[in-house]
Each structure stands twice: as structure tokens, then as C-alpha cells.
Amino acid sequence: MKLDQKLLADSMKSALKVEFLANSEELFLYAGAIYSAMVWSRGIDEKNKTIQERDKPVK
Fold first, then answer.
1. How far apart, in whole angstroms, are the C-alpha atoms of residue 46 and residue 53?
2. From first to last of its 59 residues, what are the pLDDT tens digits of the chain?
């Protein structure tokens, strides 16, 4: 699987805003978790969009 560099940069920026991380390893792991959540949410958004398109009432 190829990484989305823009999404990875966004997740790193988000991780840098957190104050409870103690070292660079924790920062890397936290950014990875944020990245995974963003990728997962893309898939959910696409599925929801498909469901919404199919669920339109007929007029």
C-alpha cells in the first residue's frame, strides 16, 4: 500500500500539537495512529456516500 504523503504530513502536524507525548518514538506512533484513522474514515465516507445515493426516495 502506498502512503498518501499529504495525509501523512497532516497527521504529523496534528500529532505535533499534542503536549502529552514524551519523545520522538511516541510522536511517530501517534502520527501513525492518526494517519490510520484518516485512511479508515475515507473508506467509511465512500461507503456512506454510496448508501446515501442508493437510499434516495423516488418522487
1. 11
2. 677 888 889 999 999 999 998 999 999 999 999 999 988 888 777 777 777 677 766 55
Our CA angle for 42, 43, 49, nearest 5°, is 90
The rounded distance, in Å, linking the Cα atoms of 53 and 25 is 42
CA–CA distance, 38 with 11 (Å, rounded to integer): 8
**pTM of the predicted model, to two decimals?**
0.69
Name the nearest CA neighbour of 6 among 45, 55, 42: 42
* Residue with the three cell numbers 502520527: 31
Instruction: Note whether 3 and 34 are within 8 A (CB).
Output: no
Residues 17, 23, 25, 30, CA torsion sign: negative
